[in-house]
Fold these 3 entries.
Entry 1:
Amino acid sequence: MSIGKIHHFGEGCACPMGRLFRMLFSSLRFEKQDLVIVDTAAGVEHFGRSLDGQCDHVLCIVDPSYESIMMAKRVETLAGEAKLPVSVILNKITPEIDEDLTVALEGVTIIGRLPDNRSIFLNNLKGKSLDPEMPEIESVCDAIEQAWI
């Protein structure tokens, strides 16, 4: 499920989409073993709209950039106010970057890493879906399942 993303000029505020999400999500019933991932726009606006109040856990994707690191720390703070645990997946990781990001995110739970992979980059650039059977993708999916199940 994808929420809070503006797709067209002049579409208006994402608030109505947030309200719709809250109504829909609060009416759904899940079993303990169900895993639902909601993809929100990057940033923290959904916290201001209390959309994460319907969730059990926050998963944050962190790229190797200062802005992404700061955003992950902000997400952790806001999720903490909602008493929600946060897990991070590091994206576009090289051996040199891995250690720096791990240090920069000290105290944050890192559950997976996606390598800086040309195939992943080109698929993303072309708007193609990732192959869920790629070892790197399988590894992250396994990490997500382990964190929640």
Entry 2:
Amino acid sequence: MDALLIYFIQVNVLISVIYIGYYLFLRYLTFYRLNRLYFLIGLIFAIAYPFLDFGWLFPNEFSPLGQFDEYLPFLNDKFESTKSLTLTGGVSFLVGVGVIAFAGRFIFQILSILRVHYYSVDAKWQGFLFRNVVFQVSPFSFLKRIYVHIEQHNEHELRDIFEHEDIHVKGLHSVDIIVFEMLLIGCWYNPFVWLTRIAVRHNLEFLTDQQVLNKGIDPQTYQYSLLQVAREGTSVRLSNQFNFKLLKTRIMMMNKKRSSKRRLSNYIFLLPVIIFSAGAFTINRAEAQIERVVFTASSWQLNGDSKTFSAVPDTVVEPVIVQVKKKEGNLAKQQDLESPVEVVSASDTVPVKSRQEAFENSNILYIIDGERMGKDFKIETIDPNTIDSISVLKRKTARERFGDEELDGVMIIVLKK
């Protein structure tokens, strides 16, 4: 669950960076085809980059030291608590409900298009193939189909409609819309995803208008046709459609002077910004984690007591120095002399304390099923399989609650009934 949560955070952060880059540097440029590629490639990169290695961008100047983690069964076992809903669980539940709701919304939109398709028939007008809808509907295209209620438009409007929608169809613009609608299902809680989705739709309309005008159609006549068509019929949301609310912006962009090729430098500037943002986020997250030694669980002999240590396998770690603090102690592991573990007795090495040693030197109060244990109580005497839940109070909270200024912490254990 934690890995999935981190993945979603990474994806959402990068999508936010992609939209901010578009808003600041690209939205008023007339390179609409490049803007389309920017969004699509950016989305693919956002989804894939958590699996990519950016370590070469941020080389480590130091060698990480391994850390021994003593295996304590009563701490490492996973306990399932049914008594309360954690914050993470609550957030996950809320996100899940939203995902289900938006997935239902997406399915409803698909069904709306299927309904229009069902109440339409194949037709042809001046070489354009389309589906003639039996009731009034705002002209739109979806995938390879154009849907028009032909009786509600005159011949001049029909020419502009088909020129416009034919570009949507040939350019597969519906794919962009579907992809970003599906992104919205998983990331509905991110306002930048909503803004990106809107920007993608707007850019597709700008691109289509530009290509229509490139065919030699009179701009004023075309804009008037857009105004007339956008006011008629019911609209279908999951489609390329004539949008009256967007019309003012579309007309402004049609009348806008073409951007200079020198502005292509904006795209070149954004590329390293996005890559380094992704790389920095990944590296910071990785460095925040504590690296453990490469050894799998093995038995060590310390001061006559057998201690078991666990570590994460398949992790590359530099050699680890372990200091033997007492002459009568011994440390042994069956492996080659080229071992990454070196045993020394030099006094200038940094001592490494085991977690158990930290427990023994701390004033920890143990409460089991409401009963306080004495100072000679050993946690190892409890069978982990009998534990139902463990609650830990840190030093400040423990001292305030129990009025003992010498307490280092309290561990409250509830056994299974």
Entry 3:
Amino acid sequence: MLKLLICAALLLLAVPAYAMHISEGILPLPWAVFWYAVAIPFVALGIRQVNSLARDDLSFKPLVGLMAAVVFIISCMPVPVPTAGTCSHPCGT
């Protein structure tokens, strides 16, 4: 019963956000350059770690490919949003 009351309260207290994906060309160029620069070390470390794991275990690359395919398929599945009358989709990030 408590879970039902919490769910009802969350639905009734929700406010419209009027939010959506960032359109192309909206993000200022300095911001885009800054966040690319921030992301570069993390991407490099991730690639380095994946290469290290792939050298140690030959089944690692096929496993990564399979998991990427699963995430892609799941992100393609529409999830109905009953209060909005539209659909959403899970993100694979």
